[in-house]
Amino acid sequence: MAKKNILTYEGLQKLENELQELKTVKRKEIAQKIKEAREQGDLSENAEYDAAKDEQRDIEARIEEIDAILKNAEVVVEDEVDLDKINVGCKVRILDIEFDEELEYKIVGSTEANSLKGKISNESPLGRALLGKKVGDEVKVDAPVGELSYKVLEIQRSN
User: Fold this and answer.
1) Which of 6, 122, 123, 15 is nearest to 74 (CA)?
2) Which one, of 92, 99, 105, 111, lies nearest residue 145 by Cα?
3) Of 101, 77, 98, nearest to 88 (Cα)?
4) pTM of this structure
5) Chain centre to alpha carbon of residue 98
6) Burial readout 31-53 (b: 16 or more C-beta within 10 A, e: otherwise)
7) What is the distance between the alpha carbons of residues 149 and 92, in angstroms, rounded to a whole number?
8) For residue range 68-117, what is the model confidence (pLDDT) as tens digits?
């Protein structure tokens, strides 16, 4: 059985929009590029044709990847997330005990994770450690630099 891809509604929308763009716009653009490159004659030494075919392969691979994600998607309804404990779809504010620094993350499925945007995966070491915890709980995470300690300060809806 294929692994379930946990998505927030926002993540689902983003993937569906990207898929629509790839299928309707990008496919047409690349078909036009290939057509124009073919019209230039000899394909064996045609760099534009090779580049267009490479781009077409990348687009088709991404379409396949998104289709596979969506086929096994499980959408978390963020309005129904239980705020008593940390779960996918909620935003958490935690305290890094060692550095006395507050951090805020949104817990998302692995396909949406983007640490630069404050979205951590439920499968990451920190995300996994936080799941099920409540406000006031202390969390220990094994990291390459050693054990890190955090305290859960707040759990809220992410929207």
Assistant:
1) 6
2) 99
3) 77
4) 0.78
5) 29
6) eebbeebeeeeeeeeeeebeebb
7) 15
8) 999 999 998 877 777 899 999 899 999 999 999 999 999 999 999 998 99
